[in-house]
Amino acid sequence: MIHSTSQKNWAAYKPLGLARRSCSVKNGESAANHAASGEGGFTLLETAIAAVLLMVVGLGVAGLFVYAIGSNGGASDRASSLTIAQGAMEKLRGLPFTDAALASTGTTSTTVLVNDGSGRSFQITTTIADTVINSKITLKKITIKVVPKSSTGALAAASGLFGSVTLVAERCTPVAGTNIH
Fold it and tell me: Other C-beta atoms within 10 Å of 33: how many?
């Protein structure tokens, strides 16, 4: 005599790919001995396929973590570069128009290497160009470029490219009437 272990309608589960395994208990056999006979559970092939799928998904997520770490590092470099560039620009904008520190560098630039509080190095390049009208300096164009410097690593070039900041400001002579072109 065969007894069914479940009263569910398994026909509803067939479209989902779930098939009912034949699970019946014979007269003299207990349910525990029947389950131990190997008729229930997952096969080795099903377990291996599930493990491979989990591995593929896990590697995809690991790649996203690596990308996020690199992106956060670039954002940190840009934030530090911007802070350093703004500080340098404010120093130059606070000087009088005729100050020697605002003398034109022409086509050359001055480059300085600085360190922030976290031990990162940044290269500051400053260029000052004068616009002369009627033999009077009327306009100074100040350009400051800050590039993070990485000591080693494969991301050294990318860090300089994506973490660099360039600020440009113009100052005119404070005397009224000399700025007319």
Answer: 11
Choice between 75 and 39, residue whose per-residue pLDDT is larger: 75
pTM over 0.90: no
Query: Where do the structural domains in the chain lie, given as residue ranges?
Result: 47-172
How many other CB atoms sit within 10 Å of the CB of residue 126?
19
Type of residue at 79 = A
What is the b/e burial string over 163-175, where b = at least 16 CB atoms within 10 angstroms of the residue's CB? Answer: bbbeeeeebebee
Specify the residue for token string 């072109």.
181
Strand ranges in the chain using DSSP code E only, listed in sequence order? 3-4, 24-25, 110-115, 121-133, 136-149, 165-172
**Within 10 Å of residue 97's Cβ, how many Cβ atoms?**
13
Question: How far from 4 is each of 11, 69, 86, CA to CA, in Å?
Answer: 15, 55, 79
CATH number of the 47-172 domain? 3.30.1300.30
